[in-house]
Amino acid sequence: MKSSPSPAASSAPPAGPRRRARVAEPDTVSRVMHLLLFIGAAMILAVWAMELHEGVINPWDRWMQPLLALVVGGAAVLMVWRPTLDPVLRPLPVLSFNLYLIVTLHMTLLYGSGPQQWYQTLTALYWVPLAYGCGFVFLRQRMALLVCTFTATGIFLPMLVWWQRGQLPAWTHEHGPLLVIVAMSHVMYVLLLWAVIKLRDSHADARDSAERMRTLAATDVLTGLPNRRSMLDTLATALAESRRSGQPLTIALVDVDHFKAVNDQHGHAQGDAVLMQIGACMRAQLRAVDGLARWGGEEFLICATATPLAAAVELAERVRVAVSACPMPHGEQVTISLGLTPCEPGDDVDTLLQRADHALYEAKARGRNRSVTRTREQERSDAARPASMATQGLTTP
């Protein structure tokens, strides 16, 4: 006899596709971020090589850009090599890139001159919105806002001071308020990114809430098993698949014997605990492909897909024996009766359930704690017999 595991171990539903998707999601995000870091390091080296070849590179960029590429690429390598370091290292490339832009802009404005100063200043300003975007991609929202605020302040506050002192190059203001407009555009970049992240998070929250509602609508609150509505959908799908592929399908309607006596003698709280234990015990005996739902009250329904009747009978007997041997919260033995029926040509959900219900009635009429099978041929034979003969000996004790 196969012993039944504890409720804590057996009541947890098997991980479904949605659960697997949630587990895999962080890995996908990490892989994308690692790829972005490797591409970023390669792009920095490409810019360094092009500017070096064209002779337009600043003296400090000759070593700052390779160092930045080393930091960004090295962080990516460490994240891949040691995934546990991912949360710790993720801010490093973002802060390094933003700090580099601040430093190179100020160095260019203070120590550059001529067309090279103009070129280096504008190219650095081109990259700043990317720095904001990296902040919101790699960091949490609050941290990203802080980093972006630090970057924008670090860039434009010194410029404002130098402008008031007349220390900025003439080209930055003689043809119009260039730096003011650039600063305003950067504020809008940050606000737009923040709005996008807020909308994304709001959409994700709404999606998760809808998913929770769908799960609750399809789950029995007491046992954690699928409920009647969910099982009806499962039955319809299994029936359609059986018709399409020709695979056998058998269902079993399960009823807890003398359950009213449990509630009357021990209270509804103990009755609920018994139902939870029975659900857990049955779930432990079934295969992963088998469906189990609380059908209503003290009834459960088993949907055994790709299972011929003979194998389903063995399965039902294993479940019945396991439940009768399972220790119950109120300290007394509890048994179940099962009514089985196979899917036959021309069946729909209603006819399948009707035969299973007749089989369950017969199991209880024969003394309970047993399983009974009904086929369409038996239904026809009973219909052809006189009512007195068909019901003879089936009076429920």
UniProtKB/TrEMBL annotation:
<keyword id="KW-0472">Membrane</keyword>
<feature type="region of interest" description="Disordered">
    <location>
        <begin position="1"/>
        <end position="23"/>
    </location>
</feature>
<feature type="transmembrane region" description="Helical">
    <location>
        <begin position="62"/>
        <end position="81"/>
    </location>
</feature>
<keyword id="KW-0812">Transmembrane</keyword>
<dbReference type="Pfam" id="PF00990">
    <property type="entry name" value="GGDEF"/>
</dbReference>
<feature type="domain" description="GGDEF">
    <location>
        <begin position="247"/>
        <end position="376"/>
    </location>
</feature>
<dbReference type="InterPro" id="IPR000160">
    <property type="entry name" value="GGDEF_dom"/>
</dbReference>
<dbReference type="GO" id="GO:0052621">
    <property type="term" value="F:diguanylate cyclase activity"/>
</dbReference>
<keyword id="KW-1133">Transmembrane helix</keyword>
<feature type="transmembrane region" description="Helical">
    <location>
        <begin position="144"/>
        <end position="163"/>
    </location>
</feature>
<feature type="region of interest" description="Disordered">
    <location>
        <begin position="364"/>
        <end position="397"/>
    </location>
</feature>
<keyword id="KW-0548">Nucleotidyltransferase</keyword>
<feature type="compositionally biased region" description="Low complexity">
    <location>
        <begin position="1"/>
        <end position="13"/>
    </location>
</feature>
<feature type="transmembrane region" description="Helical">
    <location>
        <begin position="175"/>
        <end position="197"/>
    </location>
</feature>
<dbReference type="InterPro" id="IPR043128">
    <property type="entry name" value="Rev_trsase/Diguanyl_cyclase"/>
</dbReference>
<feature type="transmembrane region" description="Helical">
    <location>
        <begin position="118"/>
        <end position="139"/>
    </location>
</feature>
<feature type="transmembrane region" description="Helical">
    <location>
        <begin position="93"/>
        <end position="112"/>
    </location>
</feature>
<keyword id="KW-0808">Transferase</keyword>
<protein>
    <recommendedName>
        <fullName>diguanylate cyclase</fullName>
        <ecNumber>2.7.7.65</ecNumber>
    </recommendedName>
</protein>
<dbReference type="InterPro" id="IPR029787">
    <property type="entry name" value="Nucleotide_cyclase"/>
</dbReference>
<dbReference type="InterPro" id="IPR050469">
    <property type="entry name" value="Diguanylate_Cyclase"/>
</dbReference>
<feature type="compositionally biased region" description="Basic and acidic residues">
    <location>
        <begin position="374"/>
        <end position="383"/>
    </location>
</feature>
<feature type="transmembrane region" description="Helical">
    <location>
        <begin position="28"/>
        <end position="50"/>
    </location>
</feature>
